[in-house]
Fold this sequence. Notes:
By secondary structure, the protein is mostly helical. It is built from five helices and no strands. It is elongated and about 70 Å long.
Amino acid sequence: MNGFDWNSLGIVFALAGAAAAALLAGIGSAIGVGMTGEAAAGVVTEDPQAFGKVLIMQLLPGTQGIYGLLIAFITLTKIGILGDAVSLSLEQGLLYFAACLPMAFVGLWSAKCQARAAVAGISLIAKRQDQMGKAMIFAAMVETYAILALLISILSIMGIK
C-alpha cells in the first residue's frame, strides 16, 4: 500500500479558500443588508418618500458579498474548476487558500461594520433627508477596507504560479 499523496490536498485547500471568501463575505453582507433593512423599514413606515434614499443605504453592505464571490470565481478559474483542469501541489493549494483569506475575513467584518454606519446614516436621513450625501460617505468609508482586501486577494491569487 502506497502512502497518502499529500499533493492531492492542494485542490482541497484551494477550494476551501474560494469557499471561505464567498461564504464569509456573503454572510457578512447578508447580516449587514438585514440590519440596514430593518432600520430602513422603520423609516419608510413613517415617511414612504424616503424609500429610495434608505434603499441605497441598505445596498452598501451588500458589496462585500459580491467581492467574495468575485474572489471565488477568480480562484476557481485559475485552479481549473471553471476551465482547464490544473494539477496543484499542496504548497500551491495552501497559497490559494491564504490568498483568499483577506477577502474572506475583511469581507465578513467590514460588511457588519458598514451596516452599523449605514444604520446610523438611515437615522440621519430619517431626520434630515437633505443629508443623504453625508450619510452615504460615512458608510462608504468602511468600503475602502473591503476594496483593499479585494485587491490584496486578487494580486495574491494572480501571483501564484
